[in-house]
């Protein structure tokens, strides 16, 4: 049984981010892997040890501000689970909240959990558009697609990027990095949503969650012809050839 926690689904859900949870759940169910999803928001009780996959979507500065204190109250337990290999996916605003801080336009600082060594500051223009990133998963390279829309520019410290920008802006439009990765925590600016468009990434996260529970079996292949075709169209538009 895989237990999924969707954190702040009512506040962090930009550009269809909840589709990431749907894709994760459906790709488990299509393989008869039992899966439950629980939605957790401000003030709700949560025991991170019970979960295999935690998802945080994107949100505007306003929502990030509303969440910051609540998330901080959960910091120690969340961090303990992350150190223990909990699989986490955080997108855009959710990603920024896992870093040290987000310096919003006007200079207001929103504290982050500091779980990943990175910080974000608002730039003077929004970074918007379709994007593609090259990601390495278990030694295999994968082109991941999506779109981004953020004013925050993220700068990484002692933490790996999620991938390398092939097209678009990524973390800051300057250093060619996109997102961040620490243990089994994956952070990205890519909406779209990310997981339905990139089935290989979704399966990788499912495998990691299963492996953490001692189950090393190969996932049954699914028919991904629609997803693959959509990725091919997008990659061709970005001038990046095929998968
Ligand atoms: N508020 C953040 C920014 O604009 C995050 C936006 C988002 O989640 N798309 O940088």
Automatic annotation (TrEMBL):
Its EC number is 6.3.5.13, 3.5.1.2. The active site is at 92 (nucleophile), 191. Keywords: Cell shape, Cell wall biogenesis/degradation, Glutamine amidotransferase, Hydrolase, Ligase, Peptidoglycan synthesis, Transferase. One of its GO terms (biological process) is cobalamin biosynthetic process. Pathway: Cell wall biogenesis; peptidoglycan biosynthesis. It catalyses: beta-D-GlcNAc-(1->4)-Mur2Ac(oyl-L-Ala-gamma-D-Glu-L-Lys-D-Ala-D-Ala)-di-trans,octa-cis-undecaprenyl diphosphate + L-glutamine + ATP + H2O = beta-D-GlcNAc-(1->4)-Mur2Ac(oyl-L-Ala-D-isoglutaminyl-L-Lys-D-Ala-D-Ala)-di-trans,octa-cis-undecaprenyl diphosphate + L-glutamate + ADP + phosphate + H(+); L-glutamine + H2O = L-glutamate + NH4(+). Transmembrane segments: none annotated. Residues 4-198 form the CobB/CobQ-like glutamine amidotransferase domain. It comes from the Bacteria. InterPro entries: Class_I_gatase-like, CobQ_GATase1, GATase_3, Lipid_II_synth_GatD. Belongs to the CobB/CobQ family. GatD subfamily. The lipid II isoglutaminyl synthase complex catalyzes the formation of alpha-D-isoglutamine in the cell wall lipid II stem peptide. The GatD subunit catalyzes the hydrolysis of glutamine to glutamate and ammonia. The resulting ammonia molecule is channeled to the active site of MurT. Forms a heterodimer with MurT. This is Lipid II isoglutaminyl synthase (glutamine-hydrolyzing) subunit GatD. It comes from Pelotomaculum thermopropionicum (strain DSM 13744 / JCM 10971 / SI).
